[in-house]
Amino acid sequence: MPPKVRQIDIKIKNLQSNLKIAMITDVHIGEFLQKDFMAKLVSDINLAKPDIVVIVGDLVDVSAQSIGDFLDPLRYLRSTYGTFYVPGNHEYYHGIDGILEKISSLGIEILGNKNKKIASINLAGVYDLAGIRFKHLEPNLDEALTGRDPSLPTILLSHQPKFIKSMQQDVDLVLCGHTHAGQIFPFGLLVLLDQGFLHGLYKINDKMQAYVSSGAGFWGPPVRIFAPSEIAILNLSKE
């Protein structure tokens, strides 16, 4: 089953103009899902005519050497401002340096602990928490937010939502994946205990919200029960 396109309306304080972000996470391209699946995702995203495309980790589940042309459809993503990516934990398991090189070569910008002013927002990203365990490409929020324009809203890409619990600075919106919305009931309860979030839009405090996507693909067994996959179209407007 290809993922459904899900529309989510989000109000952001101080947003100067409406912005449409197409978001995918947890595609897990590899053994089961390959080039055809990637091409269908790209085509569905392009139909939505987004301003920005973000890929929030766990894009691949094999090494850069084994990936062949599975990711090539990503070259054909169309949006006003481009495609931005942060890695998830699975990229670390399969040799993250090679994978980042491959993704870069497809014209996708990697926001590893950095930010960029795009349209009327700061778009920032952190490396994944797995980097702490691997002692390589560790997430660093201070570095990711250095030099951002304080007058503009900030959107942060962070693969695992539990990163939010460790954040010492607020942003306006955090975009995460990782949970697969539990993928197979009742695993959701375990995911919820580990991550603190499962799926959907959360209000973290007066300033900060988070959207946790259920992901576009699947991990492990090719099954999803009560946890439909999605391409999230985030329609941002001024609060």
Write up what this structure looks like:
It is globular and about 45 Å long. By secondary structure, it is an alpha/beta fold. The mean pLDDT is 91. The strands form 2 sheets. It has a 6-stranded mixed β-sheet, covered by helices on one side. It has a 6-stranded mixed β-sheet with strand order 6-7-8-9-11-10. Helices cover 19% and strands 26% of the residues. A hairpin with a 2-residue loop joins strand 6 and strand 7. 46% of the residues are buried.
Instruction: Report the β-strand fraction as a percent range.
Output: 25-35%
Question: Distance N terminus to C terminus?
Answer: 35 Å
Parts with pLDDT < 50 across at least 5 consecutive residues? none
What is the residue-averaged pLDDT? 91
Number of strands: 12
Structural class label: alpha/beta
Strand order in space, largest sheet: 1-12-2-3-4-5
Helix fraction by DSSP (H/I, runs of at least 4): 10-25%
The largest sheet is: 6 strands, mixed
Give the overall form. globular
Radius of gyration: 16 Å
Please trace the helix and strand order, writing H or E for each element. Answer: EEHEEHHEEEHHEEHEEE
- Helical run tally: 6
Question: Outline of this structure?
Answer:
This protein has 239 residues and is an alpha/beta fold. It has helices spanning 35-47, 89-93, 96-104, 130-134, 141-145, 187-195; strands spanning 4-12, 19-24, 52-56, 83-86, 109-110, 114-118, 121-125, 154-157, 173-176, 200-203, 209-212, 230-238.
